[in-house]
Write a structure and sequence with these properties.
Pathway: Amino-acid biosynthesis; L-threonine biosynthesis; L-threonine from L-aspartate: step 3/5; Amino-acid biosynthesis; L-methionine biosynthesis via de novo pathway; L-homoserine from L-aspartate: step 3/3. InterPro entries: ACT-like_dom_sf, ACT_dom, Asp/hSer_DH_NAD-bd, HDH, HDH_cat, HDH_CS, NAD(P)-bd_dom_sf. Its EC number is 1.1.1.3. It catalyses: L-homoserine + NADP(+) = L-aspartate 4-semialdehyde + NADPH + H(+). The protein is an alpha/beta fold and about 425 residues long. The chain has three domains: about 150 residues, Rossmann fold; about 160 residues, Dihydrodipicolinate Reductase, domain 2 (2-Layer Sandwich), CATH 3.30.360; about 80 residues, ACT domain (Alpha-Beta Plaits, 2-Layer Sandwich), CATH 3.30.70.260. Strands 7, 8, 9, 10, 11, 12, 13, 14, 15, 16 and 17 form an eleven-stranded mixed beta sheet that branches. The protein has a six-stranded parallel beta sheet with strand order 3-2-1-4-5-6, sandwiched between helices. The longest helix is centred in the last third of the chain and has 20 residues. Bound molecules: NADPH dihydro-nicotinamide-adenine-dinucleotide phosphate, ligand LTNE7NMQ and sodium ion.
């Protein structure tokens, strides 16, 4: 007897998944045992790129999660509600779940995984982080014997695509965003991509797996790429860096009982392995003991790549359903229940790049140095290379400093009469 799927959503990811399942020859033989039994959409009239019997497609999503014939629910509709309620209802009905929905998992993961453990079903989410890159399963299985201390990722395809084209072609932010939307990379509301929120959801999920504790999303610091300008891209290039939106989770340097979990555009040294990850590609660098460094690289968004991850999760569940055991597999289920302690961003120890526009007068660099010195901020380099109209442009790169102290120094600097503005402040890896 085949395994019956109920699929919620037939957009970019749903269509890619159906295409993959309908083209099973030459792939894993278990795929041929899967039946696309029901598919839920919003509109029946929309033209579709896949052919399915009309009786399979419905707008009644509740009827899918309540259908006793459905073995596995595949949630690829996105959004918070009704996705959350439908997932919970499917779990209550004893169905395993595959989801690509990082937004729902990052917010409702505790509720969803608790319900799944109680019901004895699995919730699989490989597609939720890094699109097609296998990273969830390695963290849950192959890497789980390591003590991980840092996860650093480029985990949003849309912003990496935008930054890459801004850097290589000097393109305009809004034109490139439109291309990312056309290519199916961006979220329904691309604000989630551009403002770092999608990457925030993803690093919360990665941190919970890597550090074995639940993460409250409100503790994740998120900054997006809106403020990244062509001027900063040019300075980064001159100084030997590229700008990447990084999602980072690590043990806090000065208090290892706490984690630092954050997303922000970052100056990445050109020699760093993440500096060469371009376009829609994602990469996740995991560092731990005893493995050292391991990096996962691949397409982070798009129909085919994400369908690969969704379908591999379906396959794992088909295999679990076919095994004759009812005992839960601890490598598939979620095992942590405690919340990790997250340090506020003010406690972060990092280097900074800051760009100042100042009056063109003698002694400004000295005044900046004095303010930084007053707050224990040590400067790695300070250069005045150009002008913006009448104003001199001064660029500072610091050594490692506690963010709170750096911000105090900036507050003092802002009060100097010679300072016009501080157009950019970016962290340096
Ligand atoms: N696109 C990507 O590259 C990736 C996406 N994801 C995640 O996958 C999920 C799906 O994304 P994507 O495929 O891009 O989204 P799309 O917007 O392309 O597709 C969403 C699908 O869900 C259906 N749908 C949405 N809301 C409802 C509703 N209330 N009732 C009925 N049907 C509904 C839509 O129906 P209709 O077609 O009728 O409008 C559509 O078929 C999201 O959680 C996203 O974050 C994860 C990794 C990569
Ligand atoms: N919008 C997301 C899609 C994949 O998760 C991205 O751009 O990475
Ligand atoms: Na993945």
């Amino acid at each position: 007897m085949g395994v019956k799927l109920g699929i919620l959503g037939l957009g970019t990811v749903g269509t890619g998944t159906v295409q993959l399942l309908q083209d099973a020859v030459g792939r894993h033989p278990l795929l041929q045992e899967i039946e696309i039994y029901r598919v839920g959409v919003r509109s029946l009239d929309k033209p579709r790129e896949v052919q399915l019997p009309s009786a399979v497609i419905t707008t009644d999503l509740e009827s899918i999660v309540n259908d006793p014939e459905v073995d596995i629910l595949v949630e690829v509709m996105g959004g918070l509600e009704p996705a959350r309620s439908l997932i919970l209802q499917a779990i209550k009905n004893g169905k395993h779940v595959v989801t690509a929905n990082k937004a729902a998992i990052a917010r409702f993961g505790a509720e969803i995984f608790t319900a799944a453990n109680e019901a004895g079903v699995y919730v699989m989410l490989e597609a939720a982080v890094g699109g097609g890159i296998p990273v969830i399963q390695p963290l849950k299985q192959a890497l789980s014997v390591n003590r991980i201390h840092t996860v650093t990722g480029i985990v949003n395809g849309t912003t990496n695509y935008i930054l890459t084209r801004m850097q290589t072609e000097g393109s305009d932010f809004s034109d490139v965003l439109a291309d990312a939307q056309r290519l199916g990379y961006a979220e329904a509301d691309p604000t989630a991509d551009v403002d770092g929120l999608d990457a925030g959801d993803k690093i919360a999920i990665l941190a919970s797996l890597a550090f074995d504790g639940r993460i409250k999303l409100e503790d994740v610091y998120c900054e997006g790429i809106r403020q990244v300008s062509q001027t900063d891209i040019a300075y980064a290039e001159k100084l030997g860096y590229v700008i990447k939106l990084l999602a980072i989770a690590n043990n806090q340097a000065n208090d290892t009982s706490k984690l630092s979990v954050r997303v922000h555009p970052t100056f990445v040294p050109k020699a760093h392995p993440l500096a060469s990850i371009n376009g829609v590609y994602n990469a996740i660098l995991v560092e731990g003991e005893p493995i050292g460094q391991v990096m996962f690289f691949g397409p982070g968004a798009g129909a085919g790549a994400t369908a690969s991850a969704v379908t591999s999760d379906i396959l794992s569940l088909v295999a679990a359903l076919k095994s004759n055991t009812t005992a839960p597999n601890p490598l598939l289920s979620c095992r942590h229940e405690e919340y990790s302690q997250i340090a506020p961003i003010s406690e972060l120890l990092t280097r900074f790049y800051a760009r100042f526009l100042t009056k063109d007068q003698a002694g400004v660099i000295g005044q900046l140095g004095t303010c930084f010195g007053n707050h224990g901020v040590s400067i790695e380099s300070i250069v005045q290379t150009g002008f913006q109209g009448e104003l001199a442009e001064i660029v500072v790169v610091t050594h490692d400093v506690r963010e709170g102290e750096f911000r105090q120094a900036l507050a003092e600097i802002k009060s100097l009469s010679a300072i016009d503005s501080i157009p950019s402040i970016l962290r340096v890896l």
